[in-house]
Amino acid sequence: MRPVHVRGEVLSRKRVGAYHQITLIAPGVADSARPGQFVALAVGGATSGLLLRRAFAIYGATPAGVYGGTVQIVVAVRGGGTAWLASLDQGDPVDVVGPLGSPFRLPARPVSAVLVGGGYGSAGLFGLAQMLRGRSCRVDMVLGAASADRLFGELEAKRTAVSLEVTTDDGGAGRRGVVTDVLPEVIERAGAGVVYACGPMPMLRACGDVAASYDIPCQVAVEESMACGIGVCMTCVLPVVGDDRVTRMVRSCVDGPVFAADRVRWDDVGTVPADALGATPARAPVAGAS
Amino acid sequence: MRPVHVRGEVLSRKRVGAYHQITLIAPGVADSARPGQFVALAVGGATSGLLLRRAFAIYGATPAGVYGGTVQIVVAVRGGGTAWLASLDQGDPVDVVGPLGSPFRLPARPVSAVLVGGGYGSAGLFGLAQMLRGRSCRVDMVLGAASADRLFGELEAKRTAVSLEVTTDDGGAGRRGVVTDVLPEVIERAGAGVVYACGPMPMLRACGDVAASYDIPCQVAVEESMACGIGVCMTCVLPVVGDDRVTRMVRSCVDGPVFAADRVRWDDVGTVPADALGATPARAPVAGAS
Amino acid sequence: MRAVDFLTAPDVDMGAALAGRRFPNPVFTASGCAASGRELAQFFDVAELGGVVTKSVMLRPRAGRPTPRMAETPSGMLNSIGLQGPGIDAFCSHDLPWLVEQGARAVVSIAGSSVQDYAELAGRLAEQPGVAMVEVNISCPNVEDRGQVFGCDPGAASAVIRAVRAEAARGVPVFAKLSPDVTDIVAVARACVDAGAHGLSMINTLLGVVIDTDTLRPTLAGTTGGLSGPAIRPVAVRCVWQVHAAMPDVPILGMGGIATGLDALQFVLAGASAVSVGTAVFADPGAPVRVLAQLREALAERGFPRFSDAIGRAHRPPDPMPVGNENVDVTAEEAAEHDDAVR
Amino acid sequence: MRAVDFLTAPDVDMGAALAGRRFPNPVFTASGCAASGRELAQFFDVAELGGVVTKSVMLRPRAGRPTPRMAETPSGMLNSIGLQGPGIDAFCSHDLPWLVEQGARAVVSIAGSSVQDYAELAGRLAEQPGVAMVEVNISCPNVEDRGQVFGCDPGAASAVIRAVRAEAARGVPVFAKLSPDVTDIVAVARACVDAGAHGLSMINTLLGVVIDTDTLRPTLAGTTGGLSGPAIRPVAVRCVWQVHAAMPDVPILGMGGIATGLDALQFVLAGASAVSVGTAVFADPGAPVRVLAQLREALAERGFPRFSDAIGRAHRPPDPMPVGNENVDVTAEEAAEHDDAVR
Ligand SMILES: Cc1cc2nc3c(=O)[nH]c(=O)nc-3n(C[C@H](O)[C@H](O)[C@H](O)COP(=O)(O)OP(=O)(O)OC[C@H]3O[C@@H](n4cnc5c(N)ncnc54)[C@H](O)[C@@H]3O)c2cc1C
Ligand SMILES: Cc1cc2nc3c(=O)[nH]c(=O)nc-3n(C[C@H](O)[C@H](O)[C@H](O)COP(=O)(O)OP(=O)(O)OC[C@H]3O[C@@H](n4cnc5c(N)ncnc54)[C@H](O)[C@@H]3O)c2cc1C
Ligand SMILES: Cc1cc2nc3c(=O)[nH]c(=O)nc-3n(C[C@H](O)[C@H](O)[C@H](O)COP(=O)(O)O)c2cc1C
Ligand SMILES: Cc1cc2nc3c(=O)[nH]c(=O)nc-3n(C[C@H](O)[C@H](O)[C@H](O)COP(=O)(O)O)c2cc1C
Ligand code: FES
Ligand code: FES
Predict the structure, then answer these.
(1) Per-residue pLDDT averaged across B41-61, rounded?
(2) C33 with C79: CB under 8 angstroms?
């Protein structure tokens, strides 16, 4: 699972709804990639004023083959970096580091699993779905988005999952509402023993709550702003409770992005809880702060 | 001659020897462009960390036509900005400001003219050659470069000029040597009344010296590092003697790039001569320096 | 459907005031990045701007530094012009009247080698009609003798400002232009205000050096130069933030790396009452008018009916329901979260 | 044809010395940009570097600042981590031994809230084997109370260094890491050297603010952050230039925006005896080893048989004929021109 740093190349890029699905030739990245991990791409080319890499969940990974390994990602244009990625053509070089992060944990024994994806968040779930099925797990899926064009992978989900529920905020596709409106019935119908979720933070939290109400575990992949993506800078932290019940500010890039939903202190994300290890008393003067 | 600022587009790019010849669709730029002027291009695209425009002599300019006006330039790859330009494909956007700078001054009456181009410097001379011929001037050309691949426009020069002499430092094409080795004989053969030169600074100076020895005027287009290209920043100055015999630090972007060779104080380029208007006594303390 | 009048860019009142002097809008050029406006008039009408801040003028004509005077740096540039200019006489007979003729508001930047120089310059300008404001450049980072930088010492800065105020025309605001190259910019700002500055321009460039790895020598003939452009924007916004926090009633002309309307908005939210667009002009000669249009649009989108409502806004926790903004929904929870972040 | 042995990269002696301590080469990581080396070991052998400078460690475990802790800026970034870390005990039992085991040279950065803290930290480290050097972080720009910044006051800086020197192990160099956010960096540098610092690391980040134009509030939870990356490189090179000019015998560990071998060479020519690669690691996890290879190559191309020959080279006029360099031809005229530029 050691990440590699390679100069990759765009094999293809196509629009899928509001997104760009990009396949990158990136030898070595796919070899050890596991569901829930991500790649970090340099953006802007040689003259770029954008310093930091951009993180994208691995949607697909093909270790060998004619191209010596490819990875697929799904990109939503947000700012300058993603706009640049969305402008790439076949053959354009892309600098890739990956696979990064801790993958989803897999059930030790076959169990029924519900996979919940919000927006492009579903991209990170298809590799997981495949792997779960390979382990004889029943897989049901729930996809939600603001609008129909922001759903990703509906067709693939239909093929992959035993059942698929779709929700949109505006009712443009599937049921009007949010994923947690339908999650309880899917869990019940499937007799689910675990929930996996990937999408915006409020959705992850809500999925965790639903899973908790059924007393089943929920694994979530969070998306925190990252400077390095490899664990050296400490920008991507959030308060997570450890096995020892101690809250620590843990790095979502290496200790995550996958966490057990019931370990994340959702109320305190964006703060340092007073009881976190090493929390300084509020408003106390500190000597340095880098 | 008022410059315009347009979002242009690459119509074509092709390699010519060591250079890239690029035709840009840039409506309005060609309309008033005159020989010796230049365009300033933004480089690096939307995410660029390269702040400043790059200057390129106008090689060709077609005011009207299907594309609403095009300009041609010849680019030698030097650093990040020119490398970016050399990577552009047809249809790629390029932000253009031009035409900029003072053009070559034209003879009032028909006269025999020798045009001397060093490296890509010849690019700026073809428009001039055409205009001179249109005014019934005899045109002879001298092209020089370090090596054969760094010559530009040999064929076109052959078609355009009454005679063409070629020199290369390594003897790879034409005569081994530099342009001023052959300039005297060309001047004599042509009975030249004026010399125009475009190329590296030492060449311009040497051409000016040769012209002076024949007591004929020499117009040169200099290439000073420029931040703004439009006359507002004062980075591009060199010491030039005015009609009043006073030396001033003049802007090569608006007062040039074309100067009379005998007005440029070649020895003092890169310095502020002590007798220049406003020169501060050496090493005297000064209050501010922006 | 109910008819709703949404706030659009043309509705936004862009009027700006600096120390009582009113300007049609808050976007200015920056000293040394627009000469005296004439060259930019090829690209837009200079009267469309809040004002044109002219290149710092000295008592006598000045040839400036040798070349190279410029080095490009990542998202920035270093300059070492050495205050090349025509001197106050030529400026007053040639440049200033032209600006007045265009209907532009001339903000005249002055620079001197001694307190006396500054006083004389201010006196000369007091005789001239059409000076909308005086900007006192006490902060040149690329001087050859660092000890000579007025703006790096509260005492020297205050002496200059006092001398200028004594000579300047009544009713013409005097702004002190600060250098960021100081340990405590609030202290310098306070010294200037105490000495009579009506407001503060900030920031001037940061002192920098680039080494040419081919010649193995500094790239600039003058060794050091002033760093400007987007690279320095976070430092500039920080300076505006700190000074506005300390002296919320002192107007600030903010600058340093502004290239877009949203960049300008950062300065305004941090506490600037107006902004200057400097280095961005080199990349885009129309940058000042573009920034103005983008700022207007950005204010409309955020529900600010008046530009002035946005000044210093980032120092206050968000309103539970921002004025006139239909799109933003701030919950009590989010507001509390932001409150927490205020220190 | 005559056989000529051209100088190639493998020939260059990259050995570096900092205050008598020898390192195999002059390329280090930067504090806070490499954690304690473990994560980077996935990408390269940390023993290949001159040294690994660890994240500043404090006496006790520390959770740091709330998020957001980062904002990207043009060619740079702002960070406000708040010195999150495990504390000196965990560091000494967990991180330091790992580095020693790898055969890496551990440069331990320490940070405290009081002079006493620093002294205790230095004392703790004095007991540990395998500490190659101590870097004293007295220069944190993103403190909540600006008055608390030791590095912005020569007196406070010198008190810290004196205390550290009193406790530190003999033979282990102590470097003071300076902040650029001061009026006179030479004064702070001198105070540190007078107090016993064997050398100086510079620069730490510049204090900056970014305003989020959507929330209308500062982007960072802690409001201010430290600006790093190529954007600040000219400021960093200037600091190194000034301090080396004032104290040519004091070794400098230079940093600030180094992303390539030529960037590193700028620092060396300006006077650095070694360099740290910081933010560039975020863009390229292998940056330190790449920079090392590029620097070696650049030295060979320029005819430097020894890295140490390049230190401070930009302060001297070019040699009439650079040692071992076949490609550069400096005429007397050019040399004279360069001489002129020296002030
Ligand atoms: C683990 C992980 C997985 C992700 N997977 C995907 C994916 O599969 N598809 C997809 O479209 N996006 C994904 N994102 C979000 C994606 O990284 C951001 O949209 C992208 O960084 C924005 O870059 P920009 O230059 O377009 O936007 P800007 O807003 O201009 O970015 C400015 C800075 O903020 C950071 N940033 C901005 N938004 C985010 C964000 N949401 N998360 C993290 N950093 C951010 C950027 O990295 C950059 O440093 C993922 C993020 C993380 C952390
Ligand atoms: C009036 C004029 C006309 C020119 N015409 C041509 C032409 O027809 N064809 C051509 O190939 N080149 C021409 N040049 C030179 C061209 O502008 C530079 O090669 C180019 O700016 C280098 O950019 P870069 O990013 O590739 O190089 P870098 O070296 O990375 O550039 C760094 C900085 O230095 C400046 N700079 C570097 N070299 C020069 C130079 N020689 N002159 C001016 N500024 C420089 C750049 O503008 C930039 O700000 C001309 C320059 C001027 C001033
Ligand atoms: C080429 C150049 C010349 C400058 N000349 C002056 C000057 O004469 N007086 C002055 O007060 N500031 C001068 N400045 C500083 C700018 O006015 C401005 O404060 C600084 O560049 C930061 O803004 P910017 O990043 O938008 O350029 C100059 C800046 C540049 C780039
Ligand atoms: C995320 C981050 C954390 C940092 N933490 C520390 C620190 O703990 N101690 C310290 O002395 N410097 C710290 N620094 C400053 C760097 O060591 C370095 O001095 C600065 O970033 C300039 O170098 P660069 O541009 O190469 O990053 C930190 C910088 C960054 C970007
Ligand atoms: S992004 Fe740097 S530690 Fe996670
Ligand atoms: S390049 Fe700005 S004045 Fe000539």
Answers:
(1) 96
(2) no
